[in-house]
## 1
Amino acid sequence: MAKPAKVLLNVPAIKADFPILQRKVHDRRLVYLDSAATSQKPRQVIDATSDFYARYNANVHRAIYELGEEATREYEGAREKIAAFIRAKSPNEIVFTKSTTESLNVVAYGYGLKGKLQPGDEIVGTVMEHHSNHVPWHFVKDHKGAVLKYVDVTDEGTLRMEQYDELLTKRTKIVTVALCSNVLGTINPVKEIAKRAHEVGAVCVVDAAQAAPHMSIDVQDLDVDFLAFSGHKMLGPTGIGVLYGKPEALEATEPLLGGGEMIREVHLGRASWNDVPYRFEGGTPNIAGAIGLGVAADYLTKLGMDAVRAHEMEITQYALEKFERLQGVKTYGPKDVKKKAGVLAFTIDNAHPHDVASILDVEGICIRSGHHCAQPLMERFDLPATARASFYVYNDLEDVDALVAGIKRVQEVFA
Amino acid sequence: MSATYDLYQEQILDHYKHPRNKGPLPGATLNAKDSNPLCGDEVILHLNLDGSHRISEVRFEGQGCAISQASASILTTMLKGLPRAEVEALNQDALLKKLGIPLSVVRLKCALLSHHVLRLAIGDKKADRA
């Protein structure tokens, strides 16, 4: 079939930057469609992390020698790059963690459990959250007596926004939501939700794990209080994550990890905290990871996040049209790509998602199958599991064609 | 065919599409159920023993991937008429040999779910998480 000629990203050049995409799997070209789980890494990021270890490995913030100065400069430089990437006012609003999960736990623990919340205070989430934006709030319920409430989704997979009318009350202290669903791909109206949260005096905590890699984020425009994301889903290394917080929000948050780096003074039996963001970075941080993440942000910025988004919209649109024509295949989430990121959950009649993934694997195609760490959402749609393909900067329409051909093979096997 | 389809050999697909001994067995004396939370695979096993402690009736219920469900179906065909002592001695390898497919670590859990449920059904105290 003829491909549209629109070129938003130079995908062949991008593919050439990713060493792993040169390898074969089961003697087939690797078609990587699981970037929602973790993205592949460009040579630039791999080089930046190995360069740290090879040339200037030293601990940050303390060493009074050249290597330590260089390591600190690069680590803090990465913080500045991440601040710019999400348009934070200052690098001091950027905390490095190990993951989105840790970032959300820092907020749940430090702002919820140990912070201002009182028993009976309410936390409003949604049914479409990833487990990492459910379970930390369970802790706050179990140990602080907070009350958890959830906004439901429509059958199309968008938030039932009208439910905020009744769920938000004077008792609401935290409103939390994913900017983008890791199953449905739904992009949620976070700016509106943050506004509604602030109207009742609550803070808005955003899980941006699936959004930060794929679309331009402006935390000042969104006006959110906390925003969490991971490095490894946005071309960066594993083991590095980010927590953005408004200064007053971070100031109101108790540290989760006590230890070196996060203190001002320590005496026997008591200590005072360092300033934010260092207060939240107890222990030697993932220096190479942060530096690699900074380079990943550079890489994405050079492509242009609007171009990245437009590219993924084009691929997703193409995939949705192709899937529409497949008999016995059902997709989940919005069909309008303006409301949807490049995440496509689907099921095939008579074939379990694990079998789908196994057969596609032999074709060299990597997709995810299972509940995608979103069991409450799967329950909402009464699904034990789905298959999920997700797209990124190194994917093109040919990858979608390979997926569709693979699905036809699955259907032959299970005919 | 290529490596594809090592996993989905005719026997596996046949048992998946046309499961043997599938359905409820009301009043069965031995029953057990387990699921694989990672995949959502589920197997329920019902067994009746006769006067000489042989398996007189066996049924399974469940849902999940082809490997887990075909494995359960194949297991039931291995059990019918077996003396209890032999059921107790039936190890994982015996089932895997019967399946005759190469399994990755992840898919091994699917394949062995039914065996684990069997151990639970016959009251094996060591039948911890597969």
Note: Helices of chain B lie at 10-17, 66-79, 84-89, 92-99, 105-121.
## 2
Amino acid sequence: MSLVKLTASSLAIAAVSATAAAARDNVQIAGSSTVLPYATIVAEAFGENFDFPTPVVESGGSSAGLKRFCEGVGENTIDIANASRAIREGEVAACAEAGVTDIIEVRIGYDGIVFASDINGNSFEFTPEHWYKAMAAEHFVDGELVANTLSNWNEVDPALPDQAIQAFIPGTKHGTREVFEEKVVLAGCEEGGFFQAMLDSGVDEDTAEDKCMGIRTDGLAVDIDGDYTETLARIDSNKDGIGVFGLAFYENNTDKLQVATMAGIVPTTESISTGEYPVSRPLFFYIKKAHIGVIPGLKEFAEFFISDDIAGPAGPLAAYGLVSDPALGDTQSAVANEDVMGNAM
Amino acid sequence: MSDITATDAVPSAPRKGSLLEQDARTKRRNAAETRFKMYGIIAVTLGILALVMLVVSIVSNGASAFQQTYITLEVDLPEDRLDPEGNRNRDQMARVSTFGYGPLIGEAMEAQIAALGIEIEELGNPGDIVSKEAPAQLRNFVLANPDVVGSTVTFEFLANGRIDGYMKDRVTRATALLDKNVSPAQLDLTDALGEAGVLEKRFNWAFITAPDASGQRPEAAGLGVAIVGSFYMMLVVLILALPIGVAASIYLEEFAPKNRFTDLIEVNIANLAAVPSIVFGILGLAIFINFAGLPQSAPIVGGLVLTLMTLPTIIIATRASLKSVPPSIREAALGVGASKMQTVFHHVLPLAAPGILTGTIIGLAQALGETAPLLLIGMVAFVREFPAGPPEGFFDPASALPVQVYNWTQRSDPAFVERASGAIIVLLIFLVIMNAIAILLRRRFERRW
């Protein structure tokens, strides 16, 4: 027994000392689950085409990824954070406090957010105003707020089909929720003149915005905290359901889902890249400049990610559903020059 | 009391009637027993039903993951495109990326179709029915054997996930019409190639041995890295948890004085066994990664975290089996002059060993299926590189079996549902084997006094 104990303790000591010697030779990435599939596609191709090992890609959400990114500089911290939104000022400050001062921001393209329902059900032609009316917790009617009682889409707009309102929207921990609230619900509130009406009746701007984006909690709008596969499963079991998906997810499941138009525009990579389809957002990743040259392959990976072969309109990312960035060339030169955030502004 | 018995005359009164006829009270008691048995049977039936449903749904979804569709193609490897310098220098040939190799597969497919005399309209690029993994497979082969450039080589490529789905009846012509990733013309081609024997479905060893693949290549995704990662973690757990756990329980059971302090330790060990596993993940992140500086996503950290989780299980099982060794054995050993240490190691421990091993194996099986603590130490990740052999491999990034299941259920391509269920089957097989060994050990070696 003492022999076993001795081996165990010496192994533990060897373990700790060995880490000090062995330098990390693979790129480590964490962050947004929306960017994850793209990052894994690139990581896979990178491992195949370069002599560097395949990067390790973790998911966990934009905020969690950026938090880990800002933990500090060193081999035990990640090199790249994926994000489905731009880094916030507070996060930049937190980074700087931990010594992560030089951050390179890379925009890889755009992600469309689509509304889809069961393939055999009714088809929908939405406007943001429909979603505001259907989703708001309270409506502003004749100078006061009244609870939303609409329960059928044709009550929202007679032009919409007779179908009970049942929406599966991303939970609050998702970056997608923010886009849904701002670009659909708030936009609908403003378009329909409800925002202005609230301002006119003396409500201050912040409160009016909050009221516009307050989502009803009576069960007709269901928060999905899991991923899109869960939303799809919900629609499978409830044929009246309408779910919020990423364009890439929808394009992989076109045999089960039909997509709704928004303001008359069908969401496709083309209509999103031209900006016609209104609900989209940029996707980013952030590189720790201090790690370039320390972690082998980091810069090569970043350059490979945004090369025309990968992120261009004919590349595998676009085939998977990423809307490629028309200004990709600028991003490429920014990465090549290692331009850090803040300097350009 | 006495007048109660007097008024309640039924029990004390002499029994009337036949023994074969039950009175009301006996009937009630018997009915209660029958009812209880019924509840028991219902509970067992529900349990079995749930198990059967679980197994049926997993097997029906996942069994097809062990089969995969392959396409045999003869690929021309033209020198002007693969080795522009013409000197067979690996480093210079490596400049041709997989994007340069991709078209070769489409051309090989076209040649094959022409050779078989298949004519299908609106086919598009026939190379699309081959997996996107194929160019990488081709490139690796060429770089490993530079001399094949300029010749024609026969390859077996994976078929695209949708084509594979068609072979497994997951994709039909009706869904193909709606699906932008596959067309009915491609399915016609699949049928024609299947008849010609170029395309076939067979057992998929790659599912066990290959590493994970990205969302665009469900057909190429395998469990290799996850199995190695899980194995490494179990090794770490075994090496650390068994000696520490056994030493701790022997000390507590045989040597430690019984006082408040040891009682406190005992209560805390029991509590530790009930702590949610994610808490150990938080601890692991704080201590092993942030403080000790161990690398992220590494099996060593996973193993250490799972060791913490398994220790209470092992200590409790070991103490129970030490306790079950009768004191007469100890007394006899001490009586003939053995020291306390000799008593424990020569007599008590060997008799308790089967129980200890059973507890350890059950603890390991528990650790094998654990995902939550790994989430925080970076093991829930996309890892394609196999870790090196032990002991360096303990520090390389790796995945784990339950993590792989979790990852695959999140992917958007429906083909990953099959993969995830297949991975569950593999995990269940491992768990069943481990539990069977535990039961066998107990049956074989356990002694009763």
Note: Residues 24-62 of chain B form the longest helix (39 residues).
## 3
Amino acid sequence: MESMKQNLVGIVGAANVFDSPEVLASYSKDESFATPMKPLFVVKPENAEQVQALVRFANETKTPLVPVSSGAPHFKGDTVPSVPQSVIVDLSGMNKIISINRQQRMAIIEPGVTYGQLQEALAKEGMTLSTSLRPRANKSVLTSVLEIEPRLNCLHQFNYTEPLRCTEVTFGDGNQIYTGEAGNGPKDLQKQWDLGKWQVHSNGPAMTDMLRMITQAQGSMGIVTWASVKCELLPTIRKMYLAPAKKSTDLEDFVYKAIWARIGDKLYVMNKAYLASLMGETAEEIAELKKVMPNWVAAFGLSGDILLPELKVSAQEHDIMEYAKQTGVQLLSKVPGVSAEAVLEKSINPSGEPYWKLTAKGSCQDIFFITTLDKTSKFIEAMYALAIEAGYPTEDIGVYIQPQHMGTSVHLEFSLPYNSADSKEAKKVKELYISASKEMSKLGGYYARPYDIWTTIQLNKDAQSYILLKRMKDIFDPNNIMNTGKLTLK
Amino acid sequence: MAFPREIYQALEDIVGKRNISENIGICETYRSIPSQSSAHYGPSEHWTPLPQAVVLPGSTEEVQNVIRICNKYGIEFKASTTFWATMGYIGSDFAIQIDTRRMKSVKIDAKNMCAVVEPFAIAATVQAEVMKYGLNINIPGVGCSSSTLANFSSWIAFGPNSISMGQGSENVLGMEWVLPNGEVLRTGSLGAGEGWFCGEGPGPSLRGILRGIFGAAGSLGVCTKMAVRLHPWPGPADFPTYGTVPAYKADFGPNFKCYTLCFPTWEAWARSVQYFHESDVAYSGHRQFNMFGRNLKGAMLNIITDADKQLSDLEELVNDPYIQKENEKMKLDYQVIIAGFSERDMEYKEKAIDYILEQTGGWKSEMMLEKDKHDYALLYLTRLGHKNLNFVMCGAYEGTFGLSSNVWKTIQVVEEAVALKRKWEVEHDSIAATGGDSAMGSLSGIGGGGATGWEFFTNFDAYDKNSVHGTAKFVDGNQEFHNKYSFGPDFCRWNSDVRHMNGYNYTQEEHNQMFANAPQPWVYAYQYKIREAINPKNLCGTYFRTVDPKCLEK
Amino acid sequence: MALQDYRAMMERCSTCAGCKFIPFDKIKSLRFAENCPSIGYYNFMTYSARGRFQLSQSLLDGRAQLDDTVTEAIHTCTSCGYCDVGCKVTRYNLEPLEHNIELKAYAVENGKVLEGQKPVIENLKKEHSMIPGAKKANRTDWAKELNLKDLFKDKAEVAFFAGCKYSYDPKLQKMAQSAVKLLQSAGVDLGYLGAADNCCAGRAHQMGFFNEFKERAEANIKAFETAGVKIIVTPCSDCYHAFKRQYAKLGLNIKVLHVVEYVDQLIQEGKIKFTKEVPLTVTYHDPCHLGRLGEDYVPWDGKEKKIYNQIQIWEPRRPRYNGAYGIYDAPRNILKAIPGIKLVEMERIREYSWCCGAGAGCNESNPEFSAWTASERITEANATGADALVTACPWCKDNFVNAVDENGNKIEVLDIIELVRQAI
């Protein structure tokens, strides 16, 4: 063990190797039901060379590595070691914004860069980055895009992996390449820039999308040390609306129509528990909001930037009102308990502390998967039925429907707040989480990001993918050192 | 090696007597001649090898069984759809050609904007079917005569509407793919039987091993079904075409406009393109008709829009003072289609175009606003049904240069490329003298903008061997330009590292030598390992670029 | 021209697929997007115009042989000419139909014909009819009661040429009789060739039997000229094409009209008036040889020239046959003029119409293929919801009458003249 420490120190320096019980304990569990396991060390590399050296060392010594980029709290079990003797590779210290290019609308970021940090820098250049819903303040943008967290604007999600484009990755075998367009040029960003290449195209580098080997992978294939992301122009005008509804199905036609008409830059649906949780600053406030808010709300946003923004927004406002009328919904600037503008502000900005999902009850367990909008009501009904059976209050179940990939599918999320200090309640929620996860899968819910128990649930339904994923794991991480045990690929 | 009876019989048992042939006359029609079609390693006079047999499977199961036989006996195989591109043809003598013509269904989920297509569903048929539901599909520059599935799975697939719809890779949802070892992979949500809506995951996306920045050109097995994302079509349910063959035109109504936008400088041109990249104004954007060349495009447009004109009228039209004037005005141009989802939306988009022109000093070509030309261009760019006008002038063409990069880099070097081509046109007679600049292609090779996808149409006569050889020399001579600006190989030499000019495959040793020296050779070493994992007998030719990792470990 | 004269075309074909689909701009559905019955039925590339170009190269270069499979592939083409239209949407210098027929002639020259073709050609030589078993002695039986002038004995402006199918087929003879009566009632001074009436042999040409065609064509031209014919009118689309395009090349200088053109003209002139309503929804099938192959022949003698280094043009300007000016409107005008008729169109119409399957003798030489081709059309006709399929060619009608669609359903098949007669 001491020899390992010396080796780690040799790679990242003594100041960046941690093994105090407190530090190790903080990385040994998260907010999920994943079984806690203490790592052996925590290391904080400062650059890609150190990361590569760590991976090579891990290969030589068969040491499991667990990459972590965001700050706590974590929720999905993916950063909790699955096997003993693991070394946490905490990349949060690598937090440089390597470049911002307004002309190409590209930014290159290190793993530790947070949304708040990046959005501030981009705003100075008149740009912004599409975001997942109210990310944690210490959430790594790179992890967020690498794990394909759903974005609020599906219409610009030309690629499923948008806005992620190119990366620098050290695979589990210790080899380091650039993915996407960047893999076709010299392995030096400055040299690529000098040649006019701005790491724009995510596919490739050749006939394999290397990026797709590392996305949704929970760090089980390699460690990414920078990523280029496609930015958008910072709106000069924004308008936000809320469409209240009694049932989620009342909003389906409207959502489909807005997607078809390619209108707006924000579109998502929430039930009142989810919306109250997003908006409420305290548990009491959340409880009050739930009393007054409509059962369901579709949030819809319009924006204009540099090209005749007023005219664009006024035309689109007229059109969306017409579509709303046609589909039997009302678009309002406020609904009981909340204004549309406030929803927008909360949605696009990072959360304060504590993380908003923890406000209601201190803990929260999510179940999310991909389906199509027309099937969501089936899942919602089933979830409520399971909750009743489990004795979990249905009024606490938060539901979030986020269209993605230009609307061809939706991210459907159930959020189950609970009090983890209450062991009975925690047990109940855990059981509900397990039974509901299985039931959702039975009903056709697709765990594209198969965290924790979803791995087994999903891969057991798809033997051929499972076999091939194992073969890919053999190629990119032959010694099974990358987040060992995740995705059960070995 | 003679094709043993037992193999033929085994294949016949799978597809039935009607759907297999080893007759030499039949098999001869499954050879590609790279000077005549799209090879990207030509022009070359050689034919690809003669297949031992041609088989036409009718289902995924039949494809799988054919491939199992190929694995059992070590037979190379390659599937193709329309047989337009040389990359779809076999590359060795002990090989069979799979013709997927019998598999052509299109199934639509209009609500969730997705269609499941089989290999021989060409883009025109997919588009025709989805338009009935107010939907549209990305049709790549190769045109609607090509297979949607083949384009999206096996090559690049960007075209006029990629700016608003994304290119092939971006539009792929679930896929069903028979791997070279005979296993059937169903990607994403399809793998667990949950539907076609998502082609990614679970976890790392296996679709990543099936296609990258471009596809593996049939060298990783056979894609038998693919779900493709559809896009809104605010136009009529079918094309209200009018006009006399071949000058078909269409009027889609007041909410569609096709403009040819022109600019005084390349810098102004690029600034205008950037506006389109940064907005959702353009439904389609292509520098299309410049394919006829800077000097001839005005005259050619007057020919192709008039059913009674033909190439014999070209010289007279080129010398027509009105056309000369209009031609000069559209020297630095491109076409853009705007589609209004409402009257107000259309009004905004019209004003946005005016604003862009105002900001960049550009103008709209008046000639291209004449009704017959407008309606022709609108129909042309929406369906790409006249795409094979590529060949009209000389019978053959190659895309050369290939300035597929970001727009700002492209414009800095385009005139140098123009001058190189013009010099060759003047000093040699092997290629058509169209005016140097015949650069054409997509305003954006990826959804939402960010990369042009250009080539210089270089027209030659495949029947005239001097023309074929001269064109090859022209391309070779341009490589210095490509090296200088790091554009890689010339567009028409892109595939020169995956098939010999004589039509045959490379050996692994040859590929090792080529790719061991790539800037990032591990990319190709990983591809080698992927091939070993799903194609252990290496049965699909050598379009999948690989280097044996041992060469890098030395 | 000989097969080797098509080398340039063979090498300039670019595998664009235009010969296999209706013009891409016209595609309205997956189901009816394709054209070329030959590849439609056999599926191998060889059966398309592109495949035929490539096959020719291989035959000329000695790689492929004229074996039974290749012979069948060569002859299993209805010479419907769609490939020509599809090709010429984007190409100005390829002649796929001419080449297809030349390839057939190459096979014929080498003694490679299909069994089913032999009785057809034998009968042409022996009995001057391409209907096996038909006797010359009975050729004009259909006209006995019609008071038609024999132009070798009497003078008339217009020669009515029924063609073999109308002359011999007992089910169709009354159509020819109706056509004659119709024209006579409209005051047309009508005659026929009487004993000199023989097969036009147009189908022999489309089958690649050039010598047999030429022999008959020259005899017929002489007969028309001797009889002093000013206008030939025929209800048969095959005959129409033969006279208008193929005979014209051999020097026929007489105006040729299909009966639909004449009737349309007579309706416009008020010489045919409709008095009865025919309450029927119909769809119209454009016969290949009347539609896209029905364009006027324009003499041309020139050569290829290159401009701008490599751009190929014809000097002088060469006529282009691409179906643009075939006979499409006359039959539709007639249908629209008949009270009560509602015309609904199929997807594949006019220059990109689907073939009936009987062309180039395929109904005799390869009946299965021919029946499938007809069945495709019946399926398309039934998809329109029409009560009847109307056509203007006896070969089409005969092939359709016996066909069923993909679901086993039939449709009433009517000759356009029947409808006209019903309305008078």
Note: Chain B has a mean pLDDT of 96.
